[in-house]
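Long-time lurker, first post. I've been practising inverse folding by hand and with some scripts of my own, and I keep getting stuck on stretches where the structure tokens seem ambiguous. Below is the full token string for one chain I'm working on. Before anyone asks, I'm not after the true native sequence, just a reasonable design that respects the backbone. If someone could post their per-position residues I'd love to compare against what I wrote down in my notebook.
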């Protein structure tokens, strides 16, 4: 029970820990401070300071300034320590500020003017602006935005949206500071500030009506929503604290019952023979190896399958790296596919050489055909194993557990909505654990346990063998043991093969002290060729499984999802 629990827990932790993509971080924006000074004529002068930390070579930074509808941005300038920097503007909104360097931290100041960026009501003047929006591809580790009126204001109202929500602090002079802190990439964060209309005596009304009442109503509604949200959050929190342990205990009892109810292992043990002979079963060696490997099909399995055809005298091993197909009769389906794959597709219909494999794989599109053949061959082995009734069918129980795992997911979604991190993670982990158990737990039948235990005993016997022990076996047993050992990656078998190879420079044959008087040249060639072709198969299979995904494509940094269709963002080049 504990072994299964630890296995599934480890698998789930690995799955959760795996990153979905890998992208090198060439820079980070450690701090951003934006000062917006509103003038009496309604224009806004903006001074921004960006603190970039680069970990590689760079050519400069990018600032996207996308004004909202009706507004314009002029006189964009950039400085470092008072020294002007060159700006190359693209698409009217993307400003490439040149400043080359390598692995350093720089501070860049950006100045610009916003015209027609304010709305003037009969009672108040409003500055409602998106300094960044969801198209921003960079994270601001610490963002502060300060809005200043043209003169001291006794009646200032302010609201922050999205990332700016509840971050506004109105100062004594009427200015407003939005201390947003860390702002992740891809987020909106509009700021909205209103000052008394008398501060702008020369500006005409641009919007009919009164703004103060609307803003106060919105603030009151937000306060009521926050209070309701907090109350509901507490309800969800208490519900999760009660429900999650109950759900966990129920699942634990069900899993314990399922595992404890499997008595086939104890029954299979009674049929095991107390010897170290090769087990006799109704399975081919490829089927045995794949089953013992828990259905993992590796390059070693491919090598062992070819060698097993040699052992069965369906394939003849010629000199060098050459094999000849001499008999196609009485083959299992997976053996037919293997023979067709190696001898018909890669070879000439009768002869297969390792050189043919290398040449075959260099031809364009053959890699796809190789993969298809490998998949059909693997599936044929799995289909045959399914016919052997080695595992207990758990269709209904498996489906029930899979469907029931959605319950913790639903609870996790609710917890995420109410920003309850720990309960949401706990619910997701419970759900993933159940899904992992549902997918990975495949109890064996009595026959399945017998096959596994018998070959496991033989595997451990092989692990303790040396070359002298190997000499005592007859040729057929040596070949069958080598096929199994190579297929399951038994280090002792590989070691014995290498020891035999090291003796070939001084002797042609090794004397034996058992029923057979020598390790025949045929077995020596069989083992050494097996080791050699395994390297080629591993290289080919590995190359076929490798896929390079270029995820470093260029994408725009432009804005447009903030208030009034405006926005902005930051980057580097």
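-- Answer (accepted) --
I ran through it position by position. Result:
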């Amino acid at each position: 029970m504990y072994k299964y629990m630890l296995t599934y827990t480890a698998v789930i932790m690995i799955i959760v820990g795996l990153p979905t993509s890998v992208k090198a971080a060439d820079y980070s924006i450690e701090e951003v401070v934006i000062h917006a000074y509103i003038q009496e004529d309604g224009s806004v002068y903006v001074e921004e300071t960006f603190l970039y930390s680069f970990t590689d070579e760079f050519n400069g930074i990018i600032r996207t300034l996308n004004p909202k509808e009706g507004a314009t941005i002029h006189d964009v300038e950039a400085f470092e320590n008072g020294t002007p920097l060159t700006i190359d503007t693209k698409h009217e909104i993307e400003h490439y500020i040149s400043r080359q360097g390598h692995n350093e931290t720089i501070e860049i100041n950006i100045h610009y003017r916003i015209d027609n960026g304010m709305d003037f009501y009969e009672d108040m003047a409003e500055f409602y602006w998106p300094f960044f929006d969801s198209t921003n591809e960079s994270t601001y580790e610490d963002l502060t935005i300060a809005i200043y009126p043209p003169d001291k204001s006794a009646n200032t109202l302010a609201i922050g949206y999205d990332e700016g929500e509840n971050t506004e602090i109105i100062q004594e002079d009427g200015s407003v500071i939005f201390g947003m802190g860390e702002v992740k990439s891809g987020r909106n964060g509009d700021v909205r500030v209103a000052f008394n209309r008398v501060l702008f005596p020369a500006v005409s009304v641009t919007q009919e009506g009164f703004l103060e009442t609307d803003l106060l109503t919105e603030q009151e509604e937000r306060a009521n929503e926050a209070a309701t949200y907090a109350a509901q959050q507490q309800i969800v929190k208490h519900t999760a604290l009660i429900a999650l342990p109950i759900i966990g205990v129920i699942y634990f009892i069900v899993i314990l019952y399922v595992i404890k109810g499997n008595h086939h292992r104890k029954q299979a043990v009674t049929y095991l023979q107390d010897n170290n002979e090769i087990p006799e079963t109704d399975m081919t060696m490829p089927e045995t190896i794949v089953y013992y490997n828990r259905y993992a099909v590796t390059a070693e399995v491919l090598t062992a399958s070819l060698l097993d055809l040699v052992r069965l005298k369906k394939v003849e091993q010629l000199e060098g790296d050459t094999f000849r197909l001499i008999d196609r009769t009485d083959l299992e389906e997976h053996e037919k596919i293997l023979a067709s794959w190696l001898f018909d597709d890669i070879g000439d219909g009768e002869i297969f050489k390792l050189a043919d494999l290398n040449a075959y794989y260099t031809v364009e599109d053959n890699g796809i055909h190789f993969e298809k053949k490998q998949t059909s061959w693997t599936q044929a082995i799995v289909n045959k194993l399914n016919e052997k009734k080695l595992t207990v069918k758990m269709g209904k129980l498996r489906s029930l557990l899979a469907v029931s795992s959605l319950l913790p997911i639903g609870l996790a979604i609710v917890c995420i909505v109410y920003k309850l991190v720990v309960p949401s993670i706990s619910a997701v982990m419970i759900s993933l654990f159940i899904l992992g158990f549902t997918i990975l737990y495949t109890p064996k039948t009595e026959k399945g346990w017998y096959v596994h235990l018998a070959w496991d005993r033989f595997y451990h016997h092989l692990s303790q063998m040396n070359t002298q022990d190997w000499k005592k076996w007859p040729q057929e047993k040596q070949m069958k043991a080598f096929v199994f050992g190579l297929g399951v990656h038994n280090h002792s078998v590989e070691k014995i093969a290498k020891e035999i190879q090291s003796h070939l420079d001084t002797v042609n044959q090794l004397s034996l002290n058992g029923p057979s008087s020598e390790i025949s040249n045929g077995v020596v060639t069989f083992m050494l060729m097996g080791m050699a072709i395994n390297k080629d198969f591993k290289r080919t299979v590995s190359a076929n499984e490798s896929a390079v995904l270029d995820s470093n494509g260029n994408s725009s940094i432009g804005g447009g999802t903030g208030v009034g269709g405006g926005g902005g963002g930051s980057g580097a080049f």
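A couple of notes from the structure itself: The chain is about 45% helix and 20% strand. The longest helix spans residues 212-260. Happy to go over any region you disagree with.
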